[in-house]
Amino acid sequence: MSAQREQLVAACHWIGAKGWAPATGGNMSLRQDAESCLLTASGLDKGTLTIDDFVEVRLADNRVTGGRRPSAETGLHTLIYRRYPEVGAILHTHSVNATVLSRLCRDEALVLQGYEMQKSLSGQQSHLDPVAIPLFDNDQDIDALAARIARRADSEPLRYGFLLRGHGLTCWGRDVQEARRHLEGLEFLFQCEVQLRLLEGQ
């Protein structure tokens, strides 16, 4: 098993231990090459996954090698891999903070500013620079949802990840290590935002 595959399995176990993928929710993937990725099979506890619990998916058309069913959000993973060749790993989680904030924020993006932890995100140099995490309404029609995300990306490149209202966070990085750092940094920032809004009475 390659180092990146080992790191992805370890990241899944870490996410499971954090409670960020409860009740078999969430999905994680790793780019294999320009044509395919490995994606978690549907309906499995992320805290106990092995590399055998991933399925190979073709990026061009979401076709699966083998008979197992991949995650329902397969089309969102393949969209990001097709759009951004530099992305090497994607983590989709269902934490309480991300899910609650996605419903509280009525704008097209959650803007984070004033937090030192913003510098956990690649390219961020200062707490003064705003970081916008795009927000999309959730949809059970993944093709329609992917099309809406693609239209936003046409006018505004997506960085780090996006939120789905009432659903959770999808984030990524150049490799598993960077995607994991982005996830941990964003989750810290989301927790700060939830606490701040509670204290401010919003």
Can you walk me through this structure?
By secondary structure, this protein is α+β, with helices and mostly antiparallel strands. It has a single domain, classed as 3-Layer(aba) Sandwich (L-fuculose-1-phosphate Aldolase). It has five helices and nine strands. A nine-stranded mixed β-sheet has the order 4-3-2-1-5-9-8-7-6, sandwiched between helices. Helix 2 (74-83) runs parallel beside helix 4 and helix 3 (96-104) packs across helix 5. The longest helix has 25 residues, at 176-200.
Question: Top keywords for this entry?
Answer:
L-fuculose-1-phosphate Aldolase, alpha+beta, 21% strand, 202 residues
Give the CA-based shape. globular
Proportion of residues in helical segments: 25-40%
Give the second-level CATH assignment, the architecture: 3-Layer(aba) Sandwich
Q: In the residues, how many domains can be counted?
A: 1
Distance between the termini: 48 Å
Mean pLDDT: 94
Q: Into which percentage range does the β-strand content fall?
A: 15-25%
CATH class: Alpha Beta
Gyration radius from CA atoms, angstroms: 16 Å
Q: What's the helix count?
A: 5
| pLDDT < 50 stretches | none
